[in-house]
Amino acid sequence: MPAQKSLSVGQRLPFWGTLRALKVLSLRSRAGRLVLMKMFVGCLVLGWAAVLSPGQEISLENLPALRDFESHRITSADPKGGNHDWRDLKPGETLVLADISGPGCIVHWRDNITGHEPHHLQLHVLRMYWDGETEPSVEVPVGDFFADGFGFTEKFSSALVAIDQRPGALTNSAASGAARNCYIPMPFRRSARLTITNEGKQPSQHWFEVNYRSYRKPPKDQGFFHAQYRQGTPPPAGPYLMLEAKGRGHLLGGVVSVKNNDGGWWGEGDEIVYIDGRQAIQGTGSEDYFCESYGLRPGCFPYFGVTLLEEPYITAYRWHVPDPVTFRQSVRFLIEQGNGNPPFRSGNYYYSVVYWYQTEPHAPFPILPAAEHRLSWAGVQGH
What we know:
Number of helices: 7
Shape: globular
Mean pLDDT: 87
Low-confidence stretches: 1-57
Helix content: 10-25%
Structural class: mainly beta
Number of strands: 25
């Protein structure tokens, strides 16, 4: 930033509040005034780019750009060319949705699970493995992965996942037929493997597709996608632990489902995040974490929303797309339960999924609760 005579700049310069920057700039030269003008124009352009819809300033103008990757799609299409375009999945068996060699990146996948067993969305478990690992980086019941708790289905749209319809009554856990779409990028270097396991007692049918790109060389500085399910029915006293991970990466989002056994307002608890061993974030209430205020209301937006609000059943999500929470060594993600006051105790049931990217290897996951424990909210036994 050259100036022939003098140029002093305040230490804190707002990114696109450039007009206020005039108050902290002292210019005594023509060169300095020219620098200020260039800064003003540059910040103005970048500022407007920042407030456009996500990807709008880049994606639309780059649509004609030629791409340096190959496009692929894996589907459940009838191998004989007929209309039997689904795969049957018997109880206790595992369906492989994709088994891909890299380098590449999954950019979209969809599954339409059709099953008539109550709670089948909690009885089907999604797992993902990267680069030949034997322990999954993703292990979540399908319904919870798609931000609808308790095996219920509600139509909604968000930036990362979407469901196209609500088949039947909202709280009918046997309803089926909705297509679940995921747009979370999932890069891999050597291989990717996606599976669904049927832990129920009845068969199911799956219409699916997996869209991915293959590259000549893996892109640099790409974290591996992870998602982990936890539950507390109810949790022990203290803040409810949603995630504990080690490595370098960043949080992508979280989904929390609550069965409000206590009645009344349950959401005064703050989110708490420890980054690299120190507390770095303290929130102001559960509804505030989910970008709402004075309680929750049903409705879905690109980065936050409430998919389920049918007392005593609640599910809310938040995607940290514009505000990823980065860590270099470790992260612990918790949310206070009860009325927001110590000792943070309640009779409510908590179910959560946290999504994040990180380097491998990842820390061992806690053991996935057995099917009957995942359904304990409904008093189901014998699975």
